[in-house]
Design brief:
Layout lengths: L14 H30 L13 H21 L9 H7 L18 H18 L8 H13 L3 H24 L5 H25 L1 H10 L6 H15 L1 H19 L6 H11 L1
Helix pairs in contact: 4-5, 4-6, 5-8, 6-7, 6-9, 7-9, 7-10, 7-11
Family: Belongs to the cullin family.
Protein name: Cullin N-terminal domain-containing protein
Organism: Rhodosorus marinus
């Protein structure tokens, strides 16, 4: 009997066994090289190269989305309830402008409006301020009344009325002081009180007639406001009363003499009286 044949697959044998063994060795070598290369990349900190992916073609997607958006817009424009789909004639009708035309003639103020407004409202408010009484109407309402009169070209008449009322009031105050029998010190205190009250009243009255004050300064030839007009009225009436003027000057001189002699005087009163003459 012949000896049994040896199996192929070793180092020696048939050519097929040698080819299979050599291919196995080459694949094992390739795996080891790949494993070593991966370790080397990990040690170096670099990541293994990946296969480059093909960039997405975004142009096609964006163009399709923009096309769909344009289609939606065109549908909305073509819809019957849309304002964008109206025809040009309807668009012109909807875009008409609102024109406000002024009066051909300015509205006329009634002839008796000035007298009624002055007698029933403005004069009542001025006298309430002078008598230190509450004003019935609001200051804003009175301001609007003054504005209406000024716009109705009643500036000159309104200034004349206000000037006459201020002069009447201060003349009455100085006449009462002139007829009084007060001592010199009480007389100085009274004239100081009259001046301080009158000063405060002018400021309050001017706040009501502020529109007139601004318009009067612009239209007047000598550019004086209502406050300066009121001060001039006080100076005029004070100078016209010889008794009040003389007694006041004598009292101020007496205060100066007392102060020089070392006597105690009311210096605040003395300063206010000098301010009144300034």
């Amino acid at each position: 009997m012949s000896p049994p044949l040896k199996r192929s697959g070793g180092l020696s044998g048939s050519p097929k066994g040698s080819l299979s063994s050599s291919s196995a060795l080459s694949s094992l070598g390739a795996k080891s090289d790949k494993h070593l290369g991966t370790k080397k990349q990990r040690i170096d900190g670099s990541s293994p190269q990946r296969k480059s992916q093909k960039p997405m073609n975004r142009g096609a997607g964006s163009s399709s989305s923009s096309t769909s958006f344009q289609r939606q817009i065109s549908r909305r424009m073509e819809s019957p309830g849309s304002s964008m789909g109206d025809n040009p004639a309807q668009a012109r009708k909807s875009s008409k402008k609102l024109l406000i035309r002024p009066f051909s003639k300015p509205p006329q103020v009634p002839d008796d409006y000035f007298d009624k407004t002055w007698d029933n409202e403005l004069l009542v408010a001025v006298r309430a301020i002078q008598d230190k009484q509450p004003v019935r109407s609001s200051y804003e309402e009175l301001y609007r009344k003054v504005e209406d009169l000024c716009r109705g070209k009643k500036t000159t008449q309104l200034v004349a009325k206000l000037e006459a009322e201020c002069e009447r009031h201060i003349a009455k105050q100085l006449k009462n002081l002139e007829d009084s029998t007060l001592s010199q010190e009480d007389f100085l205190a009274s004239i100081d009180r009259i001046w301080e009250d009158y000063f405060s009243e002018l400021l309050t009255i001017r706040s009501i007639f502020l529109f007139l004050d601004r318009k009067y300064v612009v239209e007047s030839t000598y550019e004086k406001n209502l406050f300066d007009m009121g001060v001039q009225i006080f100076v005029k009436r004070f100078t016209a009363s010889n008794k009040v003027k003389g007694t006041t000057i004598k009292g101020i001189v007496s205060l100066i003499e007392k102060d020089r002699m070392g006597e105690i005087i009311d210096k605040s009163l003395f300063k206010r009286l000098l301010t009144m003459f300034a």
